[in-house]
């Protein structure tokens, strides 16, 4: 496997609220290799976005607190950098695109003004050069008539076009790592397919690594090489996409894979969809032991009290469950 | 031909909204949100309405239930034209047709307890007896427990609250339920629960569904027949099995292709669609899909294709079929 670009070790994040402190992430570790796409998958509240924001140190220091862990990028621990050093990393080395392009673009500035802001911050360009570079960037993300678009405001563009602008902005300084937080969730399926294609092509051209955050296993199977499944702040299962989706070892992964109505399934043969019972637990009322045990069909006595630790099956596959591999 | 014995028959339904470019503009531009759609829903059947946002599927449902006054056309529900009824007649008929909305947090009053939310349909229709028992039974029917009646919406999860939305819709034993994207706002692990619940209720209570969604996977599984909408028009309608196996319209095919698949099987013909859905205030001339169609021909830019039957019960509006 190619060298490690980003190494997250035992990251723990907690939030202090009037109802008391609760932990959003209970110690996750993962590696992002050079040029690969790693997907963090999970439902709302599982901590996938919090992990991404911790990498860029974008979490507000109150109420959020990174209580332990290291995030190693090119020999440095990002968690120990000062604000100025961190600003050099953001946008230039690691950049991010968000779910809803409407709320992450500034509605009162033109597309061009927002794009050159990044370029002027990080590159020694004058305004004219920056504008020229902006329209080149928009061309690169396949936005039709870029010279016109840099003069327009976000509300004049469609959702898909706005997401292209966000991507152009994120790639302005040719980062080594792109974090994409649900980049297609707010978009229609046809536009989603276009954006996924675009991300794939841009990644191949530039050789950057991508950390994709999503709840959609379909999207994962289209573009991610490896997956880490998260549940209630824990890492549940990690492995190469195909092998993990085909032979999941954790009951939660298995549930996610089989509860999804995929094309071509026949209602006569499968009169009911396989469901995962219950609901996602509240972050401040997480169950003891394995956090998935109240919803698990294979629950055993020890799952209720003992938290399973991550086991390595073969170099590529890890999972955290008391069941033996191949049981489910 | 002119017998309206069908359970629900929609004929050439249109809904236009006025849009002015500026305050002083003299000409009103009409947004043709629903531009003449016709279909039949048989009793006990589930019809899916799919399309991208802006294709007019929600407006179509609202216009046929007369939550919006249709611009023209008719919707016959059990022999009565909904478009002709007075407000009073409509109100008593509303017991029969109910709606489930996409986001339960915005469609359920946050200041009311669940019990109050669920007693409201009975109060509106003057049913005062045994309301408490009915509410308890409703909660049981949707898989919640009677103590949920004392909770407020914010104390429940999205999946639980959508169950309340469903309970409210079935409170008065409707025969038609319009479900507008009922699972798309929910967590993946609870979507299957809600789909299963809706299927169980259909079996038990004999409900016919009009199911609006953009997710071809869910639609193909849940619905007996599917109508595909694009810019206010139905471009294809067939049984869900037929649509999946033999999609006739390039738009349908693109929608099917765009579903990110777990099955990793080879796709037949990888049709890719460029660009965005055009503005419905200014739809393209000719076939409205030609601006994005990967296989368009000259005639598509000039003339508009009509829906025609390509197989029994399978209609497509495309010249190339």
Word description of this protein:
The complex is a heterodimer of chains A (328) and B (321). Chain A is of the alpha/beta class and 328 residues long. Chain A has a domain at 4-93 and 175-247: P-loop containing nucleotide triphosphate hydrolases (Rossmann fold, 3-Layer(aba) Sandwich). Helix content of chain A is 31%, strand content 24%. In chain A, the strands form 2 sheets. Chain A has an 8-stranded mixed β-sheet with strand order 6-7-8-3-9-10-12-11, sandwiched between helices. In chain A, a hairpin with a 2-residue loop joins strand 1 and strand 2 (20-33). In chain B, the strands form 2 sheets. In chain B, strands 6-7-8-3-9-10-12-11 form an 8-stranded mixed β-sheet, with helices on both faces. Chain B has a 4-stranded antiparallel β-sheet with strand order 2-1-4-5. With 321 residues, chain B is α/β, with parallel strands linked by helices. In chain B, helix 4 (114-124) crosses helix 5 and helix 6 runs parallel beside helix 7. Chains A and B meet through helix 8, helix 9 and helix 11 of A and helix 7, helix 8 and helix 10 of B.
Biggest interface between protein chains, with counts per chain? A-B, 46 and 42 residues
Q: What pattern of helices and strands is seen along the backbone of chain A?
A: EEEHEEHEHHHHHEHEHEEHHEE
Write down the CATH topology of chain B: Rossmann fold
Distance between the termini of chain B: 26 Å
CATH architecture of the domain at 4-93 and 175-247 in chain A: 3-Layer(aba) Sandwich
| CATH homologous superfamily designation of the domain at 4-93 and 175-247 in chain A | P-loop containing nucleotide triphosphate hydrolases
The total strand number of chain B stands at: 12
Which class best fits the helix and strand makeup of chain B?
alpha/beta
CATH topology of the domain at 4-93 and 175-247 in chain A: Rossmann fold
Radius of gyration of chain B: 21 Å
Shape of chain B: globular
By oligomeric state, this entry counts as: heterodimer
Lateral strand order in the biggest sheet of chain B:
6-7-8-3-9-10-12-11
Taking the sheet with the most strands of chain A, its summary is: 8 strands, mixed
CATH architecture annotation of chain B: 3-Layer(aba) Sandwich
